[in-house]
Amino acid sequence: MHTNGKAHGIPEFPPGVQRLPATAPPEYFIALLKRDGGVIAENFAPVEVMDKCNAEIKPKLDAEQRWNGSFFPKETRKCTSLIANSPTYTRELLMNPLYQTICDHFLTTRNSFWWGDTWKESVSKPQAHTGAAMYIGPGAKAQPLHRDDYLHHNVHTEVPAPWNDERDMNRESAVGLFVAGTKTTKANGATRFIPGSHLWGNYERKNPPPENQTVYAELEKGDAFFMFASCFHGGSQNITTDEHRLVYSTFVTRGWLRQEDNMYLAIPRDILMQYDRKVQQFIGYSCSDPGCGLVDDLDPIYKLYPEELKTAVPVDY
Ligand SMILES: O=C(O)CCC(=O)C(=O)O
Ligand SMILES: [Fe+2]
């Protein structure tokens, strides 16, 4: 379905970032994402589901290594690889039907090509991109405002509002979902973002993203915030002395953002280990700068040389 927010059956929402019950029609969320780049879904997941997720990730969160850089302050802990660590997260949050519908809408790529004398349509469906829980402890500094689709080198041209379905159909490379595992507030580090920044250009804007245009996605436990990866956003400072903030962050991306051959599954480990590092890195056991291809926030080559893991620390990308 393609709408510009004024299509039949979609209300004229007041200005400002909207909070809708998660049971509202998906078209409303889609229209508000096009308008603002972000929208809140209240009661997205039951509190009991969040309690289960929180219990499943606790061992990993407790064992987590501190980040060595400014992208994540030392008071922040992460549970990376959520799909490996929390089946409840995977089944209930990642696979949530509303999120799936939104991702299908914005991230399905449909094109037609000549294939001999056949005009052949190809439809590439979205895929999971990342899933990590972010725990922000008392005293943590704010994360710099950034666009998560810089990972894909998604260089945007500045376009005037409103969103235009034809013009902007391929604009987004990822759609984010942030679900609150605890209540999130401006004081304890709620995600802040700049509404409308999904339409901003990359090279056209000469100044850093303005903090005074940010809006805080304050959530009750189980609420969700949907956001385009193209929006400027970041985890915020935690000025409390005794509250932590836990958010389950997910991004889904376009299905074609990968290699043609699935080298990780196609190449057996014993054959892989017969090649030197240069080959291993070239076929995918390396990172694309910035930050694509990581395993638990580390270079994937460590998966092949686990003895080197002892000295490895995550660094800014
Ligand atoms: O923790 C948050 O609220 C956002 C984290 C984030 O934007 C990131 O790690 O890229
Ligand atoms: Fe981010």
From TrEMBL:
> A GO molecular-function term, please?
metal ion binding
Q: Which UniProt keywords apply?
A: Dioxygenase, Iron, Metal-binding, Oxidoreductase
Q: Cofactor(s) for this protein?
A: Fe cation
Say if the entry is tagged with keyword Transit peptide: no
Output the InterPro entries linked to this UniProt entry.
Phytyl_CoA_dOase-like
The record, for SUPFAM superfamilies, names:
Clavaminate synthase-like
Q: Which Pfam families match?
A: PhyH
Write out the transmembrane intervals: none
Q: Does the keyword Iron apply?
A: yes
Listed under subunit, the entry gives: Homodimer.
* Family of this protein: Belongs to the PhyH family.
This chain's protein is named Phytanoyl-CoA dioxygenase
Provenance organism: Talaromyces proteolyticus
